[in-house]
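Sequence of Olfactory receptor (Cricetulus griseus).
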Amino acid sequence: MPSFNQSTAHPIVFFLTGIPGLETSQAWISIPFCCLYAIAISGNSMILFVIITESSLHEPMYYFLSMLSFTDLGLCFSTVVTVLGIFWSNVREISFDACIGQMFFIHGFTFMESSVLLVMAFDRFIAICNPLRYAMILTNSRIIAVGFAIVIRGTAALVPLLLLLKRLSYCRSHVLHHSYCFYTDVMKLSCSDTKINSAFGLTLVISYAGLDSVLILLSYVLIIRSVLCIASKEERKKAFGTCVSHLSAVAIFYIPMISVSLVHRFAKHAPPFVHALIANVYLLIPPVMNPIIYSVKTKQIRKAILKIFIKQP
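Predicted 3D structure, token representation.
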């Protein structure tokens, strides 16, 4: 059943926005975006493929990495149709229900990625602080249970959040400020009271990204304390080395998120195309960079990928 505007009894249709002020150049702008999507999709697919097919990578650390690649692929596929649709064909219309569906996947995969990064921090904590019990704690059955928990945690709270949007009336402009449907963007177009929506949305952000970032920080405080107790300088270096890839993934997830918030809050007078470009690139940075980071920094992943392209004599 399509959703209707309560004031007009017509189905609600929103209009997505490309790059304001650069409409004539959108075909050219689409080229780097298309390349970024291609890199993200091929890179994460490659990571998933080598982890599934290479038996030496059937370990907890790489299972969690496969979860990260899966969420990155989900983020890419959640936005690629609308973003490139605008750039290539100027297809801007999106129905309210389709918009709700896109928001579910964008925010769901974002919350899941935050959860995966937290689980990966716990993995590094166990591997460094309690290595003798590592295999005993992170069994295959527990890893599967963690995977299901991440999916449930990332999606369960979104259902009431998005249902709250459906109860609102939309009698203002239906033009969104992004190339995809974003919760706060849609909420601002409502002419109803949105206090409950705002409070619930803020609670979710604090409960997910806020809590996860604090727990990740706590994990690394404990890791650093444990590593500094190691007598051998080489062993300390090796222990820190196993955390570099994960710390980089955490940085490229949280830094763009914070940057976008700061730009929207303190750079309101910046040209509209600046906000649009940053918003589009923000969701692409982690999916593009994570495969590159893990391919470069993780020897086992690098060797497995090279094994595919370089025939062994």
